[in-house]
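Q: I'm writing a short explainer about Flavodoxin for a general audience and would like to include a description of its predicted shape. Could you first generate the structure from this sequence?
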Amino acid sequence: MNIAVISYSYTGNNEALAGSVAKELSAEHIQISEPKTRTMGSIALDMMFSRTPQVQPAPKTLGNYDLILFFGPVWMGHVAAPLRAYLKYLKSHPQRYGFLSISGGADGTNPKLGGELRKRAGAAPAVLIDLHIADLLPNSPKTARKDTSAYRLTDGDINQLTHTMMKTIEDVI
Ligand SMILES: Cc1cc2nc3c(=O)[nH]c(=O)nc-3n(C[C@H](O)[C@H](O)[C@H](O)COP(=O)(O)O)c2cc1C
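A: Of course. Here's the predicted structure. Afterward I'll give you a sentence or two in plain language.
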């Protein structure tokens, strides 16, 4: 099966996890970057005004895969803005896809993700996994946002989260 792992990451967590899952799957790993410097201010503006920022590589260069696994953070309850151009591309060039994330989880689950993905990509994801940093921390579930946002995954976390994700991914490949 021809699988691509495509990741966007602001502080490194999702990129590290995506790299580990891509290795397990022997899949190509494409890392999305932005020509413009990302700031907390531009995160807030993109999320508030539902903007689709420019990204590299451009989605139109995307090949055909049996499954595309997108990795990225959840921002303000939504899929991080830099993945939007890819989701939009799938609407006109449908491919089976999934969204996987290690998000903060300090305020609980992110219930809008499934609906947002369907709307942006034009089809439901084959797999949707939103794991939470709050569950990795000892005082969960009372963890504060500032704790989850500052947290960087350890090698042990990455192994554990990869294992958890692989159990679900194996059901759809
Ligand atoms: C501006 C901002 C908003 C966030 N909003 C959420 C949120 O709504 N839900 C959530 O679970 N995590 C939220 N987070 C936490 C990130 O999803 C989490 O820190 C993630 O691991 C970062 O991934 P990255 O290192 O790949 O960028 C937010 C983080 C930032 C910076």
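A: For your explainer, you could say: The longest strand covers residues 97-103.
Q: Perfect, that's easy to follow.
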